[in-house]
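Example 9 (inverse folding). The structure is encoded as follows.
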């Protein structure tokens, strides 16, 4: 920044910021010179092979220094707080305009260079996937440069690393398949026709298709797709190579935060976790049947292939161990969620005893030794 480049950048940013005060003095003054200057700065950065980081940082620093001086003048002159607030908002909005103009110039220069279209499309995909969402104007401007029609709804797909180079995606898709977490975006919703097309494109490669969402929520779709891909890889979701999140919403919700499920299990089922392995397993499977069916002892007994009196005995032990929790609807819901989530995790192996936590140091309640059922 001490050489010719730094000097040019400093002078150019000073000129761009000085035009803000010209605009405050005369809002009707033309801005053609400012717009051309900012676009030229962006084009220069692109042609020199640099990112926009230095230029955007210079804008931010310039606005920060300018605002400190404006504040000093405002305090000395006794300017009303309403005027100072307006100036602060206007200054920040003005900086956004400068940055947007420079981005336009930068992208225009990039688009003119050979082989840059694919990189611009990747940049567009990254912009769409930002969270919090990028301003719609920034997305539409970049989309216009690369010739991509901005859809109202999009679907994100996560692909297992290693086979991405073999994919032949539609022309209207955006892709980033070279990194450790390959993914791509398709416009529109995952209806029956898209499902069929995706099945052909992915051709048995392990992948997950996120939910179709408004474009501003694209980051959620990719996050869900990556989570479903991990669950499929671990064998928790029993699906084909291509997983559609739409088909596994409950499973994904139950396993969205596994450490929290463990904490909930310790608090709601700690007394049961403190029992012996065999007794714990039998009581747990009885509790799951009771929660899922809300049936009578004979109905539960038929499901478990035991005598109805055994079911009644187990339920009495459970009610004693859980200290009346089963009479509360909210607690019953929490317990059922825990049991369903841990049963899903059992599919991956390594989660014995229905995934219940280790016995706590202080178990609330106890269950007498049960007979050999």
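The amino acid assigned to each position is listed next.
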């Amino acid at each position: 920044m001490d050489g010719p480049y730094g000097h040019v950048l400093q002078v150019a940013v000073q000129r761009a910021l000085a035009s803000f005060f010209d605009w405050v003095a005369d809002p009707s003054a033309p801005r053609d010179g400012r717009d051309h200057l900012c676009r030229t700065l962006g084009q220069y950065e692109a042609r020199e092979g640099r990112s926009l980081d230095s230029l955007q940082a210079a804008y931010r620093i310039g606005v920060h220094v300018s605002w400190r001086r404006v504040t000093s003048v405002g305090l000395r002159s006794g300017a009303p707080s309403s005027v100072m607030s307006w100036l602060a908002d206007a200054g920040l909005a003005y900086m956004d305009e400068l940055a947007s103009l420079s981005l336009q110039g930068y992208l225009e220069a990039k688009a003119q260079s050979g082989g840059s279209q694919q990189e611009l499309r990747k940049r567009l995909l990254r912009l769409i996937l930002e969270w919090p969402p990028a301003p719609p104007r920034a997305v539409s401007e970049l989309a216009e440069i690369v010739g991509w029609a901005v859809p109202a709804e999009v679907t994100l797909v996560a692909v297992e690393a290693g086979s991405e180079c073999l994919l032949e995606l539609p022309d209207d898709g955006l892709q980033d398949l070279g990194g450790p977490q390959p993914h791509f975006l398709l416009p529109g919703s995952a209806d029956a026709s898209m499902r069929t097309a995706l099945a052909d494109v992915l051709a048995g490669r392990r992948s997950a298709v996120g939910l179709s969402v408004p474009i501003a929520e694209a980051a959620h779709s990719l996050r869900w797709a990556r989570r479903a891909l991990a669950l499929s890889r671990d064998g928790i979701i029993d699906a084909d190579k291509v997983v559609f999140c739409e088909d596994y919403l409950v499973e994904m919700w139950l396993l969205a935060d596994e450490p929290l499920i463990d904490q909930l299990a310790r608090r709601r089922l700690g007394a049961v976790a403190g029992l012996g392995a065999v007794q714990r397993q039998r009581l747990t499977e009885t509790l799951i049947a009771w929660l899922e069916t809300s049936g009578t002892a004979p109905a539960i007994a038929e499901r478990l292939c035991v005598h109805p009196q055994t079911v009644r005995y187990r339920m009495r032990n459970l009610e004693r161990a859980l200290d009346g929790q089963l009479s509360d609807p909210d607690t019953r819901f929490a317990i059922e969620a825990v049991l369903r989530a841990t049963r899903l995790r059992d599919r991956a192996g390594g989660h014995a005893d229905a995934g219940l936590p280790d016995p706590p140091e202080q178990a609330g309640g106890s269950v007498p030794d049960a007979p050999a059922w």
